[in-house]
Write a structure and sequence with these properties.
With 368 residues, this protein is mainly beta. It has one helix at 96-99; strands spanning 17-21, 26-29, 53-56, 61-65, 102-103, 111-113, 119-122, 129-131, 134-140, 150-156, 171-172, 175-177, 182-189, 192-196, 199-203, 207-211, 216-221, 227-234, 241-243, 258-260, 267-269, 272-278, 288-294, 297-298, 307-312, 316-321, 324-329, 332-336, 342-346, 352-359. Among the domains are: 1-87, no CATH class; 131-258, Jelly Rolls. The structure holds FE2/S2 (inorganic) cluster.
Length: 368
């Protein structure tokens, strides 16, 4: 008797399958969800409406084949599994295995080392170096173990109070070159203006910006408090590149550079949600910035193929790796190398608001 037709494939696995494909080899991905040789076809689709999907690798590379069979980017994972029934998005922080994980305490230094090259950096404990109206420090660099992205933290001082001084007007930070890297900014606090190679954009707190690799930028503070800013580069830089003058080479083919928060642009991801701020729509071909919310919970441990930095804007909780964990809060940054098992736990009402930068990658919901 022929097998009954099925409208939607069964979920073979609630997560994607990590695989190292080889250049020139052809792979036949199971689309029907019935194969016993996941993620590949074993002929079990016979009698169903599904056919396997062929993929020929152009180069040796790591990929995540879809295991849930509901991806829109067949044969690869697009994160659809996060919103399917059966996906275990939460983990029990009190389980026997989790109780055995060692807590690493914060010391006087800004950095707390976790498994592998993973660490948490506290901007509250960082020593900032002054450069004109700006003070800054490195967070993620090549020499700290990054392969794909760097990140710097900067504060632009506020103007003197008109009560104590007649000086009123914007305080202007130094000109910084993108220096050949995609550069993504996130203004966490403050009000002012970002000038990108001669083009000016006003901002309110919580705005992202994109600067193309051959452009430069500077940030002005027009508000009463400090501007607090994160500067990400990919490929990574060891230092900020200060310039004498602002070039006038704004690339007008990409006029939209500011990325404000827009709740209507949110994507649901299990109990979480995120909004892409900067991506290809702004001209950023390799690097993606998003803002998201992590509710009070501990996420199930998972890995990514991209390198990620996660800025915690508020809230309290912990970051877990396979054998270590540490506390995190507002102003901390988590550096996550590729393929490192991790999870984030928020312990307070309202959750964590976080800003992530991934490189290389365009979709922060892809994991395995
Ligand atoms: S496993 Fe199917 S979308 Fe991720």
């Amino acid at each position: 008797m022929p097998s009954p037709k099925i409208a939607s494939p069964p979920i073979a696995s609630p997560k994607g399958f990590y695989f190292e494909v080889k250049a020139g080899r052809r792979y036949l991905w199971c689309a029907c969800g019935r194969s016993a040789k996941q993620p590949f076809c074993d002929g079990s689709h016979a009698g169903t409406e599904f056919l396997p999907v062929a993929f020929e690798a152009e180069k040796d590379e790591d990929v995540i084949f879809c295991g849930c069979k509901h991806t829109a980017t067949r044969p690869f994972c697009d994160g659809a599994h996060n919103n399917l029934p059966g996906y275990k998005s939460e983990d029990d922080p009190g389980s026997p295995a989790n109780r055995a994980i060692v807590e690493v305490a914060h010391g006087a230094e800004a950095e707390v080392a976790l498994d592998g090259a993973c660490y948490v950096f506290s901007t509250r404990r960082a020593r900032l170096v002054r450069c004109g109206a700006m003070a800054w420090c490195p967070i993620i660099t090549l020499s700290r173990g990054a392969q794909f992205q760097s990140q710097f933290y900067a504060e632009i001082f506020a103007g003197a109070s008109p009560v104590t001084s007649p000086v009123i007007g914007p305080v202007i930070g130094p000109v910084i070159g993108a220096n050949g890297s995609h550069t993504v900014l996130f203004v966490a606090e403050g009000e002012g203006e970002v000038e990108i190679s001669g083009r000016r954009f006003a901002f309110l707190p919580r705005t992202g910006f994109y600067v193309k690799p051959d452009e430069a930028f500077r940030v002005s503070n027009t508000g009463a408090g400090r501007v607090k800013l994160f500067i990400s580069n990919g490929p990574p830089r060891e230092d900020l590149a200060f310039l004498e003058t602002m070039p006038g080479n704004f690339d007008a083919r990409w006029p939209e550079r500011a990325a404000p928060i827009d709740p209507s642009q949110r994507t649901a991801m299990a109990e979480r949600h995120f909004q892409i701020l900067v991506d290809r729509a702004h001209g950023s071909t390799e690097m993606t910035q998003f803002i998201g919310n992590i509710p009070r919970s501990k996420a199930a441990p998972h890995k990514h193929l991209y390198e990620e930095s996660l800025i915690f804007l508020n809230g309290e909780g912990a970051v877990w790796t396979e054998t270590t964990k540490t506390t995190v809060g507002a102003g901390d940054v988590l550096f996550l190398p590729r393929k490192l098992t991790h999870s984030v736990q928020c312990t307070v009402e309202g959750g964590f608001d976080v800003v992530g930068v991934i490189y290389p990658g365009a979709n922060p919901s892809i994991n395995y």
